[in-house]
Amino acid sequence: MCISNKIGPPVEGEDFFGREKEIRKANRLLDSNHSLLLSAPRRIGKSSLAKRLIEEKKQQGWKCVYIDLEETTTEEGFLRLVIEAFKKNGIWKQLTEGMSKGLVSVLDRIEKVTIGGVVDFNIGKREEQEDLYKNLKELIKHDEDTFIVVDELTLFLGILNKSENGAEKVAFILNWLRSLRQVSKTNVRWLFCGSVGLRNFTSAMNLGFTINDLMEFGLGELSREEAEGLLSGLCKSEDMEMSEELINYTLEKLHWNIPYFIQVIFSKLAEEYEDEVTKESIDIAYNKLCSENYLSTWSERLSEYREYEVPARQMLKALSTQSAGLEREAMLNILMTGQDASKVEEVDYILSKVLEMLENDGYILKMDSIRTFRSPLLRDYWFNKFVQ
Amino acid sequence: MQTRLPILHETLLSYDIKTREVLDINEEAYTALSSYLSKEDVTKTAQPNLIVGESGCGKTFLMKRLYGIVKENMGNTLHPIVIEGKSLFSTDDIWNQCALYLNMEGGNDSFDAILKWQETNSRRVVLFVDNVQYYFERTDNTEQYGLRGKLNRSGAPIIIASSEKVLPAFTDYDAAFFDGFKITYLKPLTISAVKEIKDGGYDINRLEKIMAYMPKTIRSMFIAMGILDKSEDSTNDFAFLSDCFFSHYQEKFDVTSTQTQRILSALSQSDSGFTLSEIREITGQGNGKISPYLKLMIDQKLISKEAKTSRGGIYSIVDPLFKLWLRHNTVTTSKNGD
Lengths: 388, 338
Prior knowledge:
The structure holds 2 protein chains of 2 kinds. By secondary structure, chain A is an alpha/beta fold.
């Protein structure tokens, strides 16, 4: 096995490592005809996992489609991506005798789109738009085992929502996607991925019902064995020696063992590698990462929080001292220190606001009831700069 | 003297194979990136790379070396294309320019055409984008997501870009390229650390004095080394330096008005600049004949005005090399530049 170290883009094939528990769970759900919703913070490996699931399902003989909606900003673009991806992977029905005129016409237009032609889908008028989507729905083969991954759906819908009649378009697409999942005895399963929560987005638009059928699917850090295996595999691919003790030492330092951070620290270790990895070289690599100048922008950016900057800094300072994270109550107590007890409601509101802002901006994340720094590097940068 | 080199900053577009082998600075970054390129699986999603360093630290030079090694040693599997970030105003510009380099017409489907070209030629495109900060500063997050989406496709072109600084587009949590690049930081250029200069027995002190007149770039270093190769002793160094840029500064001087030329000549005589009254005295010009020109020259960035001191505002020439040229070409009494 030879794993190449990729920092940032989704990995495929032998570069994908671990996640066995999550893959088992996803397979179980997909096999029992569930469609899934995967929302997780950025850089955790959502797209890589989705691509891995596609590889597995392909091996089981399923038809698979991967649609990345970050490439489009319009409904026409959405349609084009869907039509092309479905055509490429044999999701559309073939032309048959007795097919309605409408379906034949849509099939003809699909053919033109997929050979690079520009086709007007007539989605300007509501009735024509409904007709087209209805026909497209009918043209999908629902009797074959099919797995469709839609990446960055919330990102696309967020952009679409800002366009003219955006809310209407968003509602239409979400309803259409829902109707595809509700076809009787359909064997098509879906996985929607995104770093921005689709649940929050739809609930804010009173469209929560359009995704209620989706099973929530979480993605956290790698198990300890998987994290060890990934680091060990990366070392092997670069002919680097690293004992079990040193691997553990590295993972302890990171604390939150998601592939991205393991890959980042490995990259630094590989850059500095001469003959051997030692605790000192791990410390040096880690400290170099923590001192990289781009981390200072995280502190500078807090000035945009205005009246919430001070409590935000208080929270981050406290969290940087606790690698295991803090409960909300402990954080409230920190903000209440020195305050009049009667202010507890006001302070509690400020805390909610600050936590929401810090979570949305990627400073912290919530795991169960605990909040921690999203990045161990940022946590240690914060500790070194503002605490130590 | 044959040297006429008005360009102090290299551009990636002017790839010169000879210069590639002269210096071996930023060697670690070069080794790491060329090793990555040689190992990259042509069918997988590529690792986007970003080279970050201040102006003159050798980013463009490093990209040239990488371009060279891809072209000469990896041509069977990779195909290098150079794009200057200043020419990018949208994501489509990237794919259109890339398509043009591949002798295809740009258009709506440039990206697909590039993928087809790769398939037909069994080679993967490596995009060297210099000064990528222009693209990221001119485009919004939606455009950048469009780029990320295409780069994340299996087998899509590999991007190696350079930027003078880390931008919010690489670090904001909402940004398309948040933590999306593998960043290689280059250290500022230090003359004394350059192996070729040490091995070549160059007088560091003389080199540094010449370099003080130019931006700290590799191109400048070549010029300084060339001067030392020709100049027998330090007394002639600045005459050679001035001569290197003769036509450039002659033109710059000739297009200005007579009054501006008069002021420039006066200011070139001073190391620390002159006040308005001192300029009047040297040029012999009366009230109202200097001030309007000084304002104009500040706007044109020919001169700068420092904060008022007890002597009044101090005016001085912005470009030290222009000042040196003026001393050598408009002031008869000055022999040396320092």
